[in-house]
Amino acid sequence: MPTSSTPLVLVSGSGRSGTSSLAGTLKRLGLHVPQPEVEASETNPRGFYEPQWVIDFHKRHLKELALFNIDSRPAAVDIVSRYVESGVPTAELHEWLSGQLDEQQVRGSQIVVKDPHAFWFAQVWEVVSAELGADLRWLTALRHPAEVVGSRDIAYLSSQSDDLRLTKETSNVAGWVHAALLTEKAGRGSRRSFVRYVDLLADWRTALVPVQQQLELELNTDLASSAHHSVDDFIEPSMRKSQLTWDDVRTPDWLRDMAEEVWQLLGTLTTAPHDPGTLSALDRIHADYNARYADAVALTFDHTKAESTLAAREARDAQRATVQQLRRDLAQVRAAKEPAVGGREAAAILRRAVVRRVTRR
Where are the domains of the chain? Predict the structure, then answer.
């Protein structure tokens, strides 16, 4: 365990908001990213700068709860909260972070952990950091919701139908609003900072000046200096591939207006991370979002019930067809096997065949 408080910067924010660019910049400025890191991919060729263990940790628990990264459901918050009470995520994170802080090469370093899923388990990070003497500091990347939706389309939906893409646009805007509100709320009471992705790409030195001050970070360069730095070779305006506006996104007017207001309010937090008036306005919007979501669920009750009924019927039909095919297969086994297959052996064969077929589905 460290003998003094170790700065731990948790980079969060909606996926495709520039979190990787932000974490990669901090790494080049001297902060330590726990190893191993997630490898670069086609969707992010410059690298993710995410600790593999942390990504696996969050994704595994979210999968267990059937939650998505930017899940738009208000009920998701309570689902995670009840799950955290089991103590399992806390124990796992405690063991991993303790090991990271004990590593000789990490001691005395400032650690940066980037994961867009982190806000779901903010309580776990707060508790574990306090127990281990790590000074948790939140850093949130901000990107306009229309651009986030466009970037997600480019990265994940380019091969999908227009109908699905339009449906996902509304879902992704709602998810952006929910994730933005939850991420902001997660950092209240802690040292934190916000930075716009467009500002980071335009002039990373100027964009990081308030971040360095607000998070009290030690960087390996003077941000007032124009001397060449490795970040200059990493950050460039061309990284902003999606530059969409609301004219390019089809979503209900009320949701568009809500997302735009959240975006504007979060922008004010770049200079005043704990401004009372802004926090009050965000709380008001959060309550409005929850109420409107409840209305939408009530409005689509018949649709949801019908879809559930049809899905259950299709599952039963598929199961019935599988059983009929298994019986035919068993009849063939009996016909080809000498001596004849008895009742118990036939039942055992049928059970094994069912298991094999279900496993293959």
Answer: 6-274, 303-360
Cα gap 43→313, rounded to integer Å: 38
Helix (H) / strand (E) containing 288 = helix 276-299
Q: Answer with the residue of higher pLDDT: 53 or 310.
A: 53
Quickly list DSSP for 116-160: TTGGGGHHHHHHHHHHHTEEEEEEEEE--HHHHHHHHIIIIITTS
Q: What is the pLDDT of residues 11-24, one digit of tens each?
A: 998 888 899 999 99
- Evaluate if residue 351 carries a pLDDT over 80: no
Task: Report d(CA 9, CA 110) in Å as an integer.
Answer: 8
Phi and psi at residue 112, in whole multiples of 5°?
-125, 125
Is the model's pLDDT at 153 over the cut of 80?
Answer: no
pTM: 0.82
Distance CA 11, CA 20 (A): 9
Q: Does domain 6-274 sit in CATH 3.40.50?
A: yes
